[in-house]
Structure to design on (679 residues):
């Protein structure tokens, strides 16, 4: 839709009849009527399929997942899509759609999402040769990793397992499996299905010459010739779904030379439209088998918002089908601009609605300041997904716990609550307690809320972390929280408030490890570096955590022109940093000359040297000489003195966050929310 039509849209929607959706003047396109198949979408913000890791031992979606999807529908999304469902025993995926066991699970999801008149789709896929490494712990019986040809993936992110080359009959069996899976989608009461084409999955393996060297009907010299498998799968799916249910395709630029790229997608898209089988195209980016591509698949804060919008824009120029675009479109304003510029018809938002599932409704109602912005840290979404744990959000602990916490309601008894400490834990505890009707006073010793976030946002490219602080700075006054800055809480001050409950969130102080010389004059902490402490020219960083502080401080020092070496006893530097961030950061550190020494312990710190050893074979040792400064990134220890002093004098007292046990923001806000919900 072109900008010339904006005023007519404003005029037609401004005076919408009473009882209809409220459309603000601010985002007329986001909430303009849009018909997809037989569905009138309530907004053009849609939840695209993604790994949320809510499955049971049978790889079937759980009730928690159903409530997770329901909350995004309730929040105003126009369309919701499940994460990938594998269609055949030879494929791994997040969910198994291999037999009828999934049908009642689909029905639960459909019933909950349809409460808000939002269509919900299932994404269907087969991982092909990728399954050989994703499922290498399932090598019993007759299970096989299959592919068009016996060619392993060349990516080093995975073991280069040799797949089984399917016979013509075996390929036809997979085609039938896609049709059967689509039939279960229909029987489960969902509104359609989306086929994954790209992502290095089986369909893309058939499409690319590197992985498809077949000489039967499923091979061919050109991309169009190699589309036979794709055509047959789509026909099987449409036959099962019938004419009324939605059928879409997710195509991609995999950003590697052994899978489909943007040019391939531009070839494929018009041919797919010509089949008459599809209702939309979903255009995405990235391939998780490759380190460089993986980081664009879930773009962290190193990528600019909307950076990849030209891909869907290019596809949209070639087809009349509705096009969904994705790729860190992180604000309603940016989404509106994408539509106004004609780059896409529907805007895919995943992490943005992980952070705040009610972003669409808040935008619709003109409450943009109430949106909890995604900071693209990928810590608790992608980071937990990589650990095969249900996802959440670094500062929205309700994500993943929607059934229990989405609607906690008012507290049965109103209390006066004192919160000590304005870091993530203290801010979340104060917010939730006030939201439930308690009278809350928050003490913060410094001049601004934020705690450790004020340090986290200082290194290069991490400015988005400040959005955490800004959110609470907006919300707490609105909820009536009395925030007392520059006001250090003492035992006397806290007791003088005569509070019904006290929540202590005083954070942590740096931990100094028991290494000889660790308290020397040339030893400082990463806190010191980020707050402006000067160092010598040659700096050794001791990182025992594998978390961001050690690595990001290395980049800060390298940017100051220092010669930097990181030593860690872990298998690699930054081992606890989520992949998309780690890939970028590792590349940046290498480019700035930072030396990384994994599996390296420290035996002694001297005035101008550091003695280190190999943690596997301690007899392999060396001395790092001419060291001016040693920086400790060795975690924290609880700053719990106030809690211990108050514990005997306050009937209802809690210690949360790092003052209970130093962990990360995700754990701090989760504990804070849990305590506040139970007050």
């Amino acid at each position: 839709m072109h900008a010339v039509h904006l005023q007519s849209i404003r005029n037609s929607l401004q005076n919408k009849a009473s009882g209809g959706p409220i459309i603000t003047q601010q985002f007329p396109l986001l909430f303009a009527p849009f018909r997809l198949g037989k569905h009138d979408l309530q907004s053009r913000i849609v939840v695209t399929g993604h790994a949320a890791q809510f499955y049971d031992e049978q790889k079937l979606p759980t009730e928690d997942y159903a409530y997770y999807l329901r909350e995004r529908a309730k929040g105003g999304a126009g369309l919701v899509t499940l994460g990938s469902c594998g269609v055949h025993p030879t494929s791994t995926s997040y969910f198994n759609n291999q037999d009828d066991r999934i049908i009642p699970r689909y029905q639960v999801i459909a019933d909950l999402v349809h409460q808000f008149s939002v269509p919900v789709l299932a994404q269907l896929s087969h991982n092909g040769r990728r399954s050989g490494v994703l499922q290498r712990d399932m090598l019993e019986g007759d299970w096989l990793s299959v592919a068009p040809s016996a060619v392993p993936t060349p990516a080093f992110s995975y073991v280069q397992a040799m797949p089984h080359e399917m016979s013509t009959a075996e390929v036809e069996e997979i085609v039938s499996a896609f049709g059967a899976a689509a039939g279960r989608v229909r029987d489960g009461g969902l509104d359609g299905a989306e086929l994954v084409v790209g992502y290095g999955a089986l369909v893309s393996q058939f499409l690319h010459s590197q992985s498809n060297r077949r000489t039967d009907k499923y091979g061919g010299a050109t991309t169009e010739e190699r589309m036979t498998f794709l055509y047959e799968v789509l026909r099987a799916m449409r036959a099962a779904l019938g004419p009324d249910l939605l059928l879409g395709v997710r195509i991609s630029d995999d950003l590697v030379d052994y899978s489909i790229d943007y040019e391939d997608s531009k070839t494929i898209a018009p041919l797919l439209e010509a089949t008459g089988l599809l209702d939309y195209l979903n255009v995405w980016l990235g391939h998780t088998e490759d380190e460089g591509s993986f980081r664009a698949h879930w773009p962290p804060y190193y990528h600019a918002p909307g950076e990849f919008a030209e891909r869907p824009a290019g596809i949209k120029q070639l087809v009349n089908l509705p096009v969904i675009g994705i790729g860190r479109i992180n604000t309603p304003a940016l989404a509106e601009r994408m539509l106004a510029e004609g780059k896409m018809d529907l805007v895919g938002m995943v992490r943005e609605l992980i952070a705040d599932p009610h972003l669409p409704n808040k935008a619709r109602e003109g409450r943009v300041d109430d949106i909890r912005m995604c900071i693209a840290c990928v810590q608790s979404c992608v980071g937990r997904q990589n650990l095969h744990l249900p996802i959440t959000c670094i500062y929205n602990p309700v994500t993943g716990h929607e059934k229990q916490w989405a609607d906690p309601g008012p507290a049965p008894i109103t209390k006066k609550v004192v919160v000590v400490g304005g870091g993530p834990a203290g801010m979340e505890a104060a917010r939730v307690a006030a939201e439930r009707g308690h009278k809350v006073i928050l003490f913060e010793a410094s001049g601004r809320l934020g705690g450790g976030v004020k340090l986290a946002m200082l290194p290069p490219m991490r400015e988005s972390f400040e959005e955490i602080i800004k959110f609470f700075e907006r919300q707490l006054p609105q909820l009536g929280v009395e925030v007392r800055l520059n006001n250090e809480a003492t035992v006397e001050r806290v007791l003088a408030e005569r509070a019904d409950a006290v929540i202590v969130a005083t954070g942590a102080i740096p931990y100094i490890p028991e290494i000889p010389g660790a308290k020397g004059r040339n030893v400082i902490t990463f806190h010191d570096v980020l707050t402006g402490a000067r160092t010598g020219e040659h700096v050794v960083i001791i990182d025992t955590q594998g978390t961001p502080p050690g690595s990001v401080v290395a980049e800060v020092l390298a940017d100051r022109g220092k010669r930097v070496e990181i030593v860690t006893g872990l298998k690699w530097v930054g081992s606890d940093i989520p992949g998309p961030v780690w890939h970028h950061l590792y590349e940046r550190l290498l480019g700035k000359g930072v030396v990384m020494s994994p599996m390296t312990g420290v035996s002694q710190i001297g005035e101008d040297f550091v003695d280190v050893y190999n943690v596997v074979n301690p007899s392999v040792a060396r001395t790092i000489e001419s060291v001016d400064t040693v920086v400790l990134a060795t975690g924290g220890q609880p700053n719990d003195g106030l809690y211990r002093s108050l514990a005997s004098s306050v009937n209802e007292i809690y210690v949360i966050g790092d003052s209970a046990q130093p962990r990360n923001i995700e754990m701090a806000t989760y504990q804070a929310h849990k305590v506040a919900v139970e007050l």
